[in-house]
Design goal:
Elements: H1 2-46, E1 51-53, E2 59-61, E3 63-86, E4 91-96, E5 103-104, E6 109-113, H2 116-152, H3 157-190, E7 192-194, E8 199-204, E9 211-212, E10 217-233, E11 246-251, E12 257-269, E13 276-282, E14 293-309, E15 321-326, E16 329-334, E17 336-343, E18 353-358, E19 365-367, E20 379-381
Parallel strand pairs: 1-20
Antiparallel strand pairs: 2-19, 3-10, 3-14, 3-17, 4-6, 4-9, 5-8, 6-7, 8-10, 10-13, 11-12, 11-14, 12-13, 14-18, 15-16, 17-18
Length: 401
């Protein structure tokens, strides 16, 4: 029994000693880790701060400039003169001599409907008119005879009145028959399809052999000599849009710009959309086609304001901002922006600029989008100054010159 008690006592002392050893070892480990962290912090503090090296294209100016204010527009191109050749009578389409892309002249015969039925109707009307003319001649002879008999006292004046009425009725019947002849002749002429305007065939909507109904569309003709863009304008932009304003348009799928002019503004707003249609006359261009989509901008005038290139404005935050170069570091500045436009003193391909109402000052320099996302406070290394080119030396004149 005493031996068991001694063993338990030794075990307790061994456990206590083990705990002490573990605590001492842990404290030493924590001390070493703290020293290592302090050393790393001191090293990081002594290391030079990171720098972002800029290229010449990464810095953009902030300056007061004359901006040409512009209104963005888009819409479909439409030919001013278009026409559908329709069937003015119901008949079978016998011939159609034009196809899509063919040029036609005003008054040109382009097709023919089956006129057999109308030929017979015209002949019938002419025969009825001939019969009415014969009846009129009979009534006129009878009236002349009765007038002679009344003068001789052989018949009463009442009989003469009857003959006069018969002659008037025969005259009216003849006029009605002649009108029927003209109607039949018109129907016969309507069987011939004629181009109402000069232009190009855009659609061929029927084929020979088909029976077309009255007013059925057969051919569409468009005149490409006058093309307009129909653009939807928001109500707040209408006061600044004036007739005669110049515009530049880009055709869909091409990089060529064509000139245009505002020629009309619709007095009524579009139901539902509440926009107003403006019509821009487009200058002649080989690429213009009826129905193409085009986009561009209309010049609204000029204003002088503090502005920066639109490419320097960043919109990845809740408010637009720019990164300004200040004391060799990047400084984020929230911007209040105004109208957009193109500066007159810069090259045409410089892109749009935007008015800065607050956030920057004249003479500041901001980072372009080509610099990427730059955190606030990062040190910036300016690009080296471009050395001036030496002036070309003038060769000395040769002796004897």
């Amino acid at each position: 029994m005493p031996d068991v008690q001694k063993k338990k006592t030794r075990l307790r002392w061994a456990m206590a000693l083990l705990v002490v050893v573990v605590l001492v070892a842990g404290r030493q480990l924590m001390t070493k880790r703290t020293a290592a962290q302090a050393s790393m912090a001191a090293t990081a503090a002594s290391a030079p701060p990171p720098q972002l090296e800029l290229g010449p294209q990464d810095l953009l100016p902030v300056e007061r400039t004359a901006l040409s204010r512009r209104l963005e527009v888009s819409g479909s191109l439409k030919a001013v003169n278009t026409a559908f050749v329709k069937a003015r009578v119901a008949a079978e389409l016998k011939t159609l001599t034009v196809r899509e892309g063919d040029a036609v002249k005003a008054g040109q015969v382009i097709g023919q409907l089956d006129a057999t039925e109308f030929d017979w109707r015209l002949r019938q009307a002419e025969q009825q008119a001939a019969a009415a003319r014969a009846q009129l001649e009979i009534a006129q002879r009878q009236l002349a005879n009765n007038k002679a008999l009344v003068a001789q006292g052989f018949i009463s004046p009442t009989a003469l009145d009857t003959s006069t009425s018969n002659e008037a009725g025969a005259q009216a019947t003849l006029q009605a028959a002649l009108a029927a002849v003209e109607l039949a002749r018109k129907s016969r002429g309507d069987a011939t399809l004629v181009a109402p305007i000069a232009g190009l065939v855009a659609q061929r909507l029927a084929q020979p052999g088909e029976r077309v109904a009255l007013d059925a569309r057969i051919v569409e003709i468009v005149d490409l000599s006058r093309i307009e863009l129909e653009a939807a304008i928001a109500p707040q932009d209408l006061p600044s849009l004036q007739l005669g304003a110049k515009a530049g348009l880009l055709l869909d799928g091409t990089g060529q710009e064509v000139a245009a002019t505002v020629v009309r503004i619709n007095p009524s707003a579009t139901a539902g959309a509440r926009t107003v249609s403006a019509y821009l006359a487009v200058a002649p261009h080989p690429g213009l086609r009826h129905g193409l989509f085009a986009r561009g901008s209309v010049e609204l005038g000029q204003t002088t304001a503090l502005a920066i290139p639109l490419s320097a404005v960043r919109n990845d935050q809740a408010q637009p901002y720019a990164i300004r170069l200040r004391d060799g570091r990047a400084q984020r500045r929230v911007l209040a922006l105004g109208a957009q436009g193109r500066p007159a003193q810069h090259a045409a391909g410089a892109g749009d600029w935007v008015e800065v109402r607050s956030g920057l000052e004249a003479g500041d320099r901001v980072l372009a989008a080509s610099a990427g996302l730059v955190p606030d406070g990062v040190r910036l290394k300016l690009p080296p100054a471009t050395p001036a080119l030496p002036a070309a030396s003038t060769p000395a004149p040769a002796a004897g010159d």
